Amino acid sequence: MSKRVTGFALMIGMAAFAAMPSLAADDAATRKDLTAVIALQGLPCGEVVSVRTQGENDHVASCKDGNRYHVFLNSTGRVVVEKQ
User: Fold this and answer.
1) Residues of the chain with confidence (pLDDT) below 70
2) What pairing do the DSSP bridges indicate for beta strands 48-55 and 79-83?
3) What is the pLDDT of residue 3?
4) Which residues sit opposite 50 in a β-bridge?
5) Burial of 42 (0-12, 13-18, 19+ CB in 10 A)
6) Residue 82 has what pLDDT?
7) Which residues, in sequence order, are CB contacts of 83 under 8 Å at separation 6+?
8) Contact of 79 with 71, CB cutoff 8 Å
C-alpha cells in the first residue's frame, strides 16, 4: 500500500510541475491584456502585477501603483472595469 501512495503522490507532483510553465505563460498574457484594458478605459494603473481570476472573463487586477480593478464582461458582452 505504501508503494501505491508514494507512486500516486509522485504522479500528482509531476503533473503539477509539468503544468506550471503553461500557467505562468497564461498569467503573464492575462496581466498584459488587463493592463491594456484598464489603460483603454483611461484609468490609472501603470502595470498589472497580479490577477485573481474569479470566473471566466471575471478578474480582479492589482496594479503596480496600488489600485485594484474588477474587470469583467456584463450581460450584454461589454467589458466593465470597476475600481475597488
Assistant:
1) 1-26
2) unpaired
3) 56
4) 62
5) exposed
6) 95
7) 43, 67, 68, 69
8) yes
Question: How far apart are alpha carbons 69 and 62 in whole angstroms?
Answer: 7
pLDDT on residue 47: 93
Q: How many CB atoms lie within 10 A of CB 61?
A: 25
Alpha-carbon torsion, ordered 73, 39, 23, 54, to 10 deg: -30
Query: How far is the C-alpha of 55 from the C-alpha of 17, rounded, in Å?
Result: 23
| Per-residue model confidence (pLDDT) at position 62 | 95
| pLDDT for residue 27 | 87
- 69 vs 35: CA distance, rounded Å: 10
CA quadruple 30, 32, 27, 63: dihedral sign: negative
Q: What is the pLDDT of residue 67?
A: 94
**What residues contact residue 84 under an 8 Å CB cut-off, 6+ apart?**
60, 68, 69, 70
